[in-house]
Amino acid sequence: MILLRRLLGDVLRRQRQRQGRTLREVSSSARVSLGYLSEVERGQKEASSELLAAICDALDVRMSELMREVSDELALAELAQSAAASPAPVRPMLGSVSVTGVPPERVTIKAPAEAVDVVAA
Hints:
Elements: H1 4-18, H2 23-30, H3 34-41, H4 49-59, H5 63-85
Helix pairs in contact: 1-5, 2-4
């Protein structure tokens, strides 16, 4: 299960670390307790919109930029989750076929379109 609070926390932590700032610096600037900010970054607490706004101000990051990055992370996580949940489709294997002496317009191949790669020689 993908938890939005974990993705949000990961993105906040990366933003803070990119700036080379400590939890203490950001928590002081955002006027949020160090422990609470740490729990938000670890995805253990849900951050309110007011808290997110304060953290974004402290990091000098637009909330829309933060949410865009979270959205991108969520999309990747969903893709990975769906790929892991559904096995890859089984595609029939076709061997090489050599046709000589037959005009190209007379050759017909019947197979599922997604399973055939036709290469003209």
